């Protein structure tokens, strides 16, 4: 996965704003790739990360094909500064606008942080579970 990237089990992201060493706060943008069977083979991905403390993070993810087709999700995760590994677990679909034949996917990302001196990257893989979050009533 390469965010400046691809994700399909692959994903890579680049921090849009300058950040100090391993400060994951901010907006990370990249691409997400998906194996055959998904709605689209390549999506854009945006992770809005907020650090809660030294290891825990939270935020929102947006995966979108274009402005009219998107899914916005809530996530929590953990960062290990020694291994530079970040695990993000999406927990809730906040809103979406996708074709009827598509279904929102709740994903878990396993990412690694790297810094080449000029840009910071998150790269790795994802796996997903399909949940249909249509509202309803219980009577």
Helix vs. strand class = mainly beta
The total of helices stands at: 0
- Low-confidence runs of at least 5 consecutive residues: 1-9, 15-21, 133-139
For this structure, the quaternary state is single chain
Number of beta-strand segments: 8
Question: Could you give the order of strands across the largest sheet?
Answer: 1-2-3-4-5-6-7-8
The arrangement of helices and strands along the chain is EEEEEEEE
Radius of gyration: 15 Å
Overall tally of domains: 1
Which descriptor suits the 3D outline?
Answer: globular
Write down the overall mean pLDDT: 79
The level of helicity is: under 10%
Terminal CA distance: 45 Å
Q: What percent strand?
A: over 45%
Biggest sheet descriptor: 8 strands, antiparallel, barrel
Describe, in plain words, how this protein is organized in 3D.
- The protein has one domain.
- It has an eight-stranded antiparallel β-barrel.
- It has strands spanning 10-15, 26-33, 42-51, 56-66, 69-80, 85-97, 105-115, 120-130.
- The chain has no helices and eight strands.
- 0% of the residues lie in helices and 59% in strands.
- The chain has 139 residues and is mainly β.
- The model is unreliable at 1-9, 15-21 and 133-139 (pLDDT under 50).
